């Protein structure tokens, strides 16, 4: 396959328009929710929904970071086996977190499990 056909060369004008477009989208996404929230009638109506939705942001972000790190081995292979020490130690950490609700104990148990698995296997 000819790789030259897959690349496109942008002119300076196209590059500037692309940057300005990205700037407008980024600004709009960040500005308009705050602009709408400043109006009492809109904010009062949707305040509970927004607060509930924002409560799920930390869980969603951590899940998006942790799951690929735990499951993807060798850069592209999903590994759900007993050979995946990351998965085993994260399951132990999850169980400790669920039972104790203690953050430090959760981290220590996960790291200790991973270290022991690496040491003995």
Automatic annotation (TrEMBL):
Annotated TM spans: 15-37, 49-71, 91-117
UniProt keyword annotations, A-Z: Membrane, Transmembrane, Transmembrane helix
Listed name of the protein: Branched-chain amino acid ABC transporter
């Amino acid at each position: 396959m000819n790789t030259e056909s897959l690349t496109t060369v942008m002119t300076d004008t196209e590059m500037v328009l692309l940057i300005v477009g990205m700037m407008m989208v980024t600004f709009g996404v960040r500005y308009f929710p705050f602009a709408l929230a400043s109006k009492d009638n809109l904010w009062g109506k949707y305040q509970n929904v927004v607060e509930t939705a924002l409560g799920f942001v930390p869980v969603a972000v951590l899940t998006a970071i942790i799951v690929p790190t735990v499951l993807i081995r060798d850069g592209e292979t999903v590994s759900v086996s007993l050979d995946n020490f990351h998965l085993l130690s994260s399951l132990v950490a999850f169980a400790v977190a669920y039972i104790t609700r203690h953050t430090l104990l959760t981290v220590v148990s996960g790291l200790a499990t991973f270290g022991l698995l690496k040491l003995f296997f």
